[in-house]
Specification:
The chain is of the alpha/beta class and 302 residues long. It is built from eleven helices and 14 strands. Helix 1 crosses helix 10 (268-283) and helix 1 (15-25) packs antiparallel against helix 11. The two termini are 29 Å apart. It binds NADP nicotinamide-adenine-dinucleotide phosphate.
């Protein structure tokens, strides 16, 4: 059997490392492949998932939205978020679309961050695709307050409106939008009072060395003056600071949070849980999560 990752580019993904380790550990005869897919090839690649030798796929940037139109059924959470990151092939070739980023984030915060989202105040930086999944998780788990800080507040308004219109009706009640540059002091006030701060922007991510067409180019930590979107003095020990970035393992934001004795969580647990949930949908078997996490860490950090 085969399963794979649809995206462009995908060559730096560590999904094959931890998914293949899981298939092998459970003795499942499946190969996890990388399917580098430019836009014009997307319909053909998705259609090929209907073949009987295919379990399904993961979907990543830039195709998480476009595949909504190419599958036969969409899970309500994926429809609310407006993104599919997992496709499952049913017998008969029907394709089902899911979003496991939402539950992956919940598990990361609850299992690894030891924080129950219910009744919490959350500040989220960014309003892109990952921010949509985080917002659905936060609203779905009944947080009381969600502040979305964005460079383009209109995009954050769209995010909250879309969620509230697509089944997460509380999004418009608990959600507020603010400027990421703190021009009116609102971001500072919200961060000082929050229980959970989430960075859902790529700020802090390791850059890739050399030319992007050089497959041997690994990530380097090359930013000489790492950018912080929040000031370290706003962070307090009561806050869990979660960076969705997983490479480097300790981002500038997490380093600043540690220095302020806040608790920290990087993006690796979410990455592994969303993959484990996809694995369980493809195989109907419990995923070996600890083994998947070790394989991901080896691939990323060793
Ligand atoms: P995306 O859809 O491109 O959204 C990026 C967001 O970050 C947008 O709101 C963008 O603002 C903002 N942004 C980008 N550069 C910025 C900067 N220099 N300063 C301030 N804001 C900036 O990307 P995404 O898919 O949401 O991914 C965001 C990050 O999350 C990436 O690092 C990705 O690797 C990570 N991620 C991790 C996981 C995981 O499992 N751990 C899952 C998904 C994503 P504008 O709209 O103004 O451009």
């Amino acid at each position: 059997m085969r399963v794979g990752l649809i995206g462009y580019p995908v060559r730096h993904s560590v999904s094959p490392n931890f998914q293949q380790a899981a298939f092998d550990a459970l003795g499942i005869d499946a190969t996890y492949e990388l399917w580098e897919t430019p836009f014009d090839r997307l319909p053909g690649v998705v259609a090929s998932l209907r073949e009987p030798d295919c379990l399904g796929a993961n979907v990543t940037i830039p195709h998480k939205q476009a595949v909504l139109a190419l599958v036969d059924w969409i899970d309500p959470t994926a429809a609310a978020v407006g993104a599919v990151n997992t496709i499952v092939r049913e017998s008969g070739g029907r394709l089902l679309g899911y979003n496991t980023d939402v539950e992956g984030f919940v598990r990361a915060v609850e299992y690894d961050g030891h924080l129950d989202l219910s009744g919490r105040r959350v500040v989220m930086l960014g309003s892109g695709g990952a921010a949509r999944a985080v917002s659905a998780a936060v609203v779905g788990r009944r947080a009381t307050d969600l502040v979305v800080a964005a460079r383009h507040p209109d995009r954050a308004d769209d995010l909250l409106r879309d969620l509230s219109q697509r089944g997460f009706t509380d999004a418009s009640d608990i959600g507020r939008v603010t400027y990421l540059d703190n021009r009116d002091g609102a971001l500072e006030r919200a961060v000082r009072e929050c229980d959970l701060l989430v960075n859902a922007t790529p700020v802090g991510m390791a850059r890739h060395a050399a030319r992007s067409d050089d497959p041997s180019a690994g990530p380097v930590h090359s930013d000489p003056a790492p950018t912080l979107l929040v000031r370290p003095e706003w962070l307090t020990p009561r806050t869990l600071v979660c960076d969705l970035v997983y490479n480097p393992p300790v981002t500038p934001l997490l380093r600043a949070a540690r220095a302020r004795r806040a608790r920290v969580l990087n993006g690796l647990p979410m990455l592994v849980y969303q993959g484990a949930l996809a694995f369980e949908r493809w195989t109907s078997r419990p995923a070996p999560v600890d083994l998947m996490r070790r394989a991901a860490m080896e691939a990323l950090y060793d």
